[in-house]
């Protein structure tokens, strides 16, 4: 009878082999240039990453999936870091303290929007599971690290949905308006655009209140779905 460790090793080996098989050298080269990435790239598309996860990890236990994600993240491969985030964000893994601790430790390592955005699913589930964790996220607003500041908005996008109070995050957005980083301004606009789908008047009020401070990219994103 196979041991648990042997099964996990086989799952991981099967996943890595499948990802390499689904990769594309041409796509890898293009993504590495586009992402300005220092990592190795295998050129696996997001649909193919999800396909490999389904094929190779179906039925894997929760503890094994979390441990696998931790190992994948340690590899200097762009695709594997994204797969790690997508596995962690799956319904098979509870958004518990172990996952939240993993996310917090990874924040200083984020070095691009794509890897950060694929960690968003797991992070958002952790925050929804225990909103007290937002106290930590609020400290990210003043972080010197670009991708940590950006995550304060990207990871809290669920608070733009009906039934949740967006005021705390709108306060963070107002504090970030002075930030000169394009990615921060884009995230502000993204957050407001998402909120505008259900609370357009609240977004208009925010834009009026901060009229002179809202930069072009943030305003364009925020008003995309607002009628003029």
Query: In angstroms, what is the radius of gyration?
Result: 19 Å
* Alpha-beta content class: mainly alpha
User: How much β-strand is present in the residues?
Assistant: under 5%
Order of helices and strands: HHHHHHHHHHHHHH
How many helices?
Answer: 14
The main sheet comes to: none
Give the helix proportion (percent range): 55-70%
Low-pLDDT stretches: none
Counted beta strands: 0
Please tell me the overall pLDDT: 95
Shape: globular
Question: What is the terminal separation in angstroms?
Answer: 67 Å
At a glance:
It is built from 14 helices and no strands. It is mainly alpha-helical.
How would you describe this structure to a colleague?
- The protein contains 14 helices and no strands.
- The chain is mainly alpha-helical.
- Helix 10 runs parallel beside helix 12 (182-196).
- The chain is globular and about 55 Å long.
- The termini are far apart.
Keywords:
mainly alpha, 228 residues
Topology (elements, then pairings):
Layout: H1 4-22, H2 25-35, H3 46-57, H4 62-74, H5 78-88, H6 97-106, H7 113-117, H8 120-129, H9 134-140, H10 146-154, H11 167-176, H12 182-196, H13 200-209, H14 216-222
Helix pairs in contact: 1-3, 4-5, 6-8, 9-10, 10-12, 12-13, 12-14
């Amino acid at each position: 009878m196979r041991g648990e460790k042997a099964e996990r090793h086989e799952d991981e080996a099967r996943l890595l082999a499948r990802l390499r098989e689904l990769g594309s050298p041409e796509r890898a080269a293009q993504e590495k240039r586009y992402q300005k990435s220092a990592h190795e790239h295998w050129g696996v598309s997001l649909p193919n990453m999800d396909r490999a996860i389904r094929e190779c990890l179906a039925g894997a236990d929760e503890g094994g999936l979390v441990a696998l994600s931790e190992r994948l993240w340690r590899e200097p491969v762009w695709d594997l870091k994204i797969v790690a985030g997508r596995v962690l964000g799956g319904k098979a893994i509870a958004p518990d303290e172990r996952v939240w601790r993993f996310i917090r430790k990874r924040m200083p390592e984020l070095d691009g929007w794509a890897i950060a955005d694929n960690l968003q699913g797991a992070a958002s589930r952790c925050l929804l599971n225990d909103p007290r964790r937002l106290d930590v996220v609020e400290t990210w607003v003043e972080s010197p690290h670009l991708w940590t500041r950006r995550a304060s908005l990207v990871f809290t996008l669920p608070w733009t949905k009906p039934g949740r109070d967006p005021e705390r995050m709108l306060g963070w957005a107002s504090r970030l308006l002075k930030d000169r980083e394009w990615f921060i301004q884009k995230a502000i606009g993204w957050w407001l655009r998402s909120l505008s789908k259900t609370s357009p008047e609240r977004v208009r009020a925010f834009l009026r209140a901060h009229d002179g401070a809202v930069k072009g990219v943030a305003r364009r994103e925020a008003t995309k779905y607002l009628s003029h």
